[in-house]
C-alpha cells in the first residue's frame, strides 16, 4: 500500500470533503465536492452520475472537459443507493495514467464520498448551499466568525455574508435561531412543550 503524504492544498480539500453536507434532494455530489475531489485526484474530467432504475434520465454533475471513449485512463467508484440505484464517480485522464498514489487516494476518500451519496436530507423550503451549511455547522459547534474563517481559509467578511444569507433563507435573525432551525428544534407549529422536548 502506498503511503500518502498530503500537501497543504490536498489537506484543505480533504478537510472540506470530510465536513461537506450532502445536497438536499439528490444523491449526486455538488460541483464543490467534485472540485475538492479533483484536488485530491487530479483529472481532466470528473463526473458523478446517479442512475435510478425508475427514471429514464440519470442525474449528473461534472467538471472539466467532456469524457470520451478515447480517454487514456479512468478511475471509477460506485456506491449502491437503495435497492437498484447506483451513484458512480469517474475520474478520467486523456494523456496520462493514474498512479498507485491516485488509487490509494480514492480508497482513502471513499468512505467520506459514500456518506455524501447515501445521506439524502430532505430539501428545506429555502435550501442552504453546502458552504452555508458548513459555516452554520461550525457556528453550532461554538466557533466564532474568525475561527470559522481561519478553518475554512476564507475571509471573515465571507463568513458574515454566508450567515446573512443563511438567516434570510431560514427566516431567522440570529445565530442561535439559525442553529435551532437547522437542527429542526424550532419548527413552526410546535407548541412550547414540544420545542423544549426537542432541545433536550
Automatic annotation (TrEMBL):
Pfam families: GerE (PF00196). GO terms for molecular function: DNA binding. Keywords: DNA-binding, Transcription, Transcription regulation. Residues 121-186 form the HTH luxR-type domain. Signal peptide: none annotated. InterPro entries: Sig_transdc_resp-reg_C-effctor, Tscrpt_reg_LuxR_C, WH-like_DNA-bd_sf. GO terms for biological process: regulation of DNA-templated transcription. The keyword Transmembrane does not apply. PANTHER family: DNA-BINDING TRANSCRIPTIONAL ACTIVATOR DEVR_DOSR. This is Unannotated protein. It comes from freshwater metagenome.
Amino acid at each position: 500500500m502506498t503511503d500518502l503524504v498530503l500537501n497543504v492544498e490536498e489537506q484543505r480539500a480533504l478537510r472540506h470533503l470530510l465536513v461537506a453536507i450532502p445536497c438536499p434532494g439528490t444523491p449526486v455530489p455538488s460541483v464543490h465536492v467534485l472540485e475538492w475531489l479533483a484536488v485530491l485526484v487530479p483529472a481532466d474530467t470528473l463526473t458523478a452520475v446517479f442512475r435510478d432504475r425508475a427514471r429514464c434520465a440519470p442525474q449528473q454533475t461534472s467538471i472539466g472537459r467532456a469524457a470520451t471513449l478515447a480517454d487514456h485512463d479512468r478511475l471509477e467508484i460506485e456506491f449502491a443507493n437503495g435497492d437498484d440505484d447506483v451513484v458512480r464517480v469517474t475520474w478520467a485522464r486523456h494523456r496520462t495514467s493514474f498512479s498507485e498514489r491516485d488509487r490509494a487516494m480514492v480508497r482513502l476518500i471513499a468512505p467520506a464520498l459514500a456518506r455524501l451519496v447515501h445521506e439524502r436530507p430532505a430539501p428545506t423550503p429555502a435550501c442552504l448551499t453546502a458552504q452555508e451549511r458548513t459555516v452554520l455547522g461550525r457556528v453550532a459547534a461554538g466557533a466564532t466568525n474568525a475561527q470559522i474563517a481561519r478553518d475554512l481559509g476564507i475571509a471573515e467578511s465571507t463568513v458574515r455574508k454566508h450567515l446573512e444569507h443563511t438567516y434570510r433563507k431560514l427566516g431567522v435573525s440570529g445565530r442561535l435561531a439559525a442553529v435551532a432551525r437547522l437542527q429542526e428544534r424550532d419548527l413552526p407549529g410546535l407548541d412550547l412543550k414540544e420545542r423544549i422536548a426537542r432541545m433536550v
